[in-house]
C-alpha cells in the first residue's frame, strides 16, 4: 500500500505536489517525486538516517519502518509545499492539551462561527435570522454580545443560545443515559 502512495503512475493516490516556484532551500517537484520513490526502497537504517537529517534528532527507538517512511516523506513534502498553518498548529495544540487534561474533546469541538454567517430559527411560527459579527450577533438591527442574549430576547426566558439555534445537541437526562447504555 505504501509503495502505491509514492509511485508516479496515473493512479497515484499520494497528495500531489502543486507546481509552483520552489522556496529557497527546497527541493523541486521532480526531485521530490524521485526522493519519495527512493524512500520506498530504503531499509529501516536508511530511513532512520533520513529522519536524523530532516528532523535533526534521533527517531524513537522502536518506531516501525512504515511510520518512519511516512514521517520522512511528510517532512520532505512539507519542505517543498509548506506545512500546517500557525492557526492549525495552535488548534492541534489546544486539542492535545484538552485531551490530556480532560480526556475528552467533546467540548473543544464546539462549532466556530465566522462573521457573516446567518443562523435561522423557527420559533412559534416566526422565523428569526441572526447574523454573526466579529464581536457578537445582530438580530433585528440590535446587537447582542451572546447567542443566549438573543435567545432570551426571542423567547422571554433563559435559554442556552447555542442550543436554541441548534449548534449544540440536546443532552439526555441521566436516567435515559443509563437505560440506553444498559
What is the number of helical segments per DSSP (H or I, 4+ residues)? 8
Oligomer class: single chain
User: Strand order of the main beta sheet, please?
Assistant: 1-2-3-4
Q: Detail the poorly predicted runs.
A: 1-22
Helix content: 40-55%
Query: What's the Cα radius of gyration?
Result: 25 Å
Largest sheet: 4 strands, antiparallel
Form type: elongated
The tally of beta strands, per DSSP, is 4
Order of helices and strands: HHHHHEEEEHHH
Strand content: 5-15%
Mean pLDDT: 78
Q: Which structural class fits the helix and strand makeup?
A: alpha+beta
End-to-end C-alpha gap: 41 Å
Key words describing this protein structure:
182 residues, alpha+beta, 4-stranded antiparallel beta sheet, 46% helix, 12% strand, disordered N terminus
How do the strands and helices of this protein lay out in sequence?
Layout: H1 2-5, H2 29-41, H3 44-55, H4 65-81, H5 86-102, E1 118-123, E2 126-133, E3 136-139, E4 142-144, H6 147-155, H7 161-164, H8 174-181
Antiparallel strand pairs: 1-2, 2-3, 3-4
Helix pairs in contact: 2-4, 3-4
Amino acid at each position: 500500500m505504501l509503495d502505491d502512495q509514492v509511485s508516479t503512475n496515473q493512479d497515484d493516490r499520494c497528495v500531489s505536489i502543486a507546481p509552483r516556484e520552489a522556496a529557497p532551500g527546497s527541493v523541486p517537484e521532480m526531485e521530490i517525486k524521485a526522493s519519495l520513490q527512493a524512500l520506498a526502497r530504503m531499509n529501516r537504517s536508511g530511513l532512520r538516517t533520513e529522519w536524523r537529517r530532516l528532523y535533526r534528532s534521533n527517531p524513537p527507538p522502536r518506531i516501525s519502518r512504515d511510520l518512519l517512511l511516512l514521517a520522512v516523506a511528510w517532512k520532505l513534502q512539507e519542505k517543498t509545499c509548506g506545512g500546517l498553518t500557525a492557526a492549525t498548529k495552535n488548534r492541534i495544540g489546544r486539542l492535545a492539551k484538552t485531551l490530556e487534561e480532560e480526556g475528552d474533546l467533546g467540548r473543544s469541538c464546539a462549532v466556530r462561527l465566522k462573521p457573516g454567517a446567518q443562523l435561522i430559527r423557527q420559533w412559534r411560527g416566526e422565523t428569526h435570522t441572526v447574523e454573526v459579527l466579529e464581536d457578537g450577533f445582530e438580530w433585528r438591527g440590535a446587537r447582542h454580545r451572546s447567542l443566549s442574549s438573543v435567545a432570551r430576547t426571542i423567547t422571554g426566558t433563559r435559554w442556552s443560545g447555542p442550543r436554541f439555534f441548534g449548534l449544540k445537541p440536546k443532552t439526555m437526562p441521566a436516567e435515559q443515559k443509563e437505560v440506553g447504555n444498559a
